[in-house]
Amino acid sequence: MKALPADDPRNFVQQANVHCVHCDSIPDNYIQVHQNWFFFPWHRWYLYFNERILGKLTGDDSFALPFWNWDSLGGMMLPSIYADPTSPLYDKLRDAKHQPPFLVDFDYNGTDPNFTAAQQIDHNLKIMYRQFFCNGKTPMLFLGSAYRGGDQTNPGGGSVENMPHNNVHTWTGDRTHPNFEDMGTFYAAGRDPIVFAHHANIDRMWSLWKKLTRKHRDFNDSDWLKTSFLFHDENADLVRVTVKDCLKTQWLGYTYQDVKIPWLEARP
Ligand code: C2O
Q: What is the ipTM of this complex?
């Protein structure tokens, strides 16, 4: 991706900029995909095309993006494959202190708490349980508030988007940069390859939300279901995709590995 011509839509920087097509640095009439009900579907399609492009470029049609399962006991730190400065997965603009094995803080807001490792883990697991079950009971609470033509841009994000999604972004970015670049801000987040692993876990949360409780259902609002987005596919062709076609990962050709979910037992 990094070696492709700069104007190829599959180029690494172009892929990062796709995240910023819907980003706050475009002032007039922009469509936002954060802090509303498009957060999960738009990012699922974003990952899907990024993965298809990587599959095509590597000649491996079965290529799958990994998920950074920060909600598991062994995953609550920057995965070491991203921390190796000689790796293409490395990014300079990350917090110097938050290198493995430093533990992620799910409500991080710029200052590190004074927790022991056991306290930090317990704190994170309780946040997960709370955001998933207590604060995410309805489609609006979990997926985000309705956002239709003419509406104000930020009607309100879903529980897991607000925390820990946003906090893991900020936690990963470099606190000595004004917007916690790269991960801490929309325009730059896609420049850190870890954004795709972070979002694969967010995407997994959407699947889990529906899988763990039958009461959890997607919106059946046709404005949501019929909304479409544009992306470049693995052949650099512009394609239009809809929310209703991404509701099940199986339709997009993938599922998430079943892994232990320690926060299921972490009722606050
Ligand atoms: Cu487009 Cu993790 O935000």
A: 0.99
